[in-house]
Specification:
transcription regulation; nucleus; Helix Hairpins; elongated; repressor; 153 residues; His_deAcase_cplx_SAP130; 0% strand; SAP130_C
């Protein structure tokens, strides 16, 4: 209790508190140098890009699913067209023609999606064109001295 009575607040609220948002500036982060990036653990293994290969396989799966979708709906469309030719009721004929139009619209959507995914996949795989150049830069900038291991307590 005696310590609390003798304690005074030496601060001035005007000096230590900010009045505007512009009074406070965030500290800018220092960008790592090329040698620091090259000396990171497993830097050459990161160059192989397992995440990009994983993304590539997912894109391939999407293209395959769109192809399967295209095949299923092609058979459905052909069977509906045959039934539409045999149908004599005008109401059912209208419904079948609406379904056929929607299936054709899905065909167009599927083709566009498949083409765009394949184009994106090609663009992603172009990243590996620079792999040898980046590996050369990493090998030139890595330090030759072994890193000291600190004793862990």
């Amino acid at each position: 209790m005696s310590l609390l009575n003798g304690y005074r607040h030496p601060w001035k609220s005007r000096n230590n508190h900010f009045l505007r948002y512009s009074d406070l500036r965030p500290k800018e982060e220092r960008k790592p140098t090329l040698s620091e990036l090259a000396n990171q653990k497993h830097a050459l293994q990161k160059l192989n890009g397992w995440k990009i290969y994983h993304l590539n396989s997912q894109m391939e799966d999407m293209v395959n699913s769109e192809t399967e979708f295209f095949g299923l709906y092609t058979s459905l469309l052909s069977s509906l067209e045959i039934k539409q030719k045999k149908c004599k009721n005008k109401d059912i004929d209208r419904e079948i023609s609406r379904i056929n139009e929607r299936i054709r619209a899905n065909f167009q959507r599927s083709k566009v999606v498949k083409d765009q995914i394949q184009e994106a996949k090609q663009q992603v795989m172009k990243l590996f064109e620079h792999k040898s150049y980046v590996a050369d830069i990493i090998n030139r900038n890595v330090t030759k001295r072994p890193v000291k291991k600190r004793d862990r307590i």
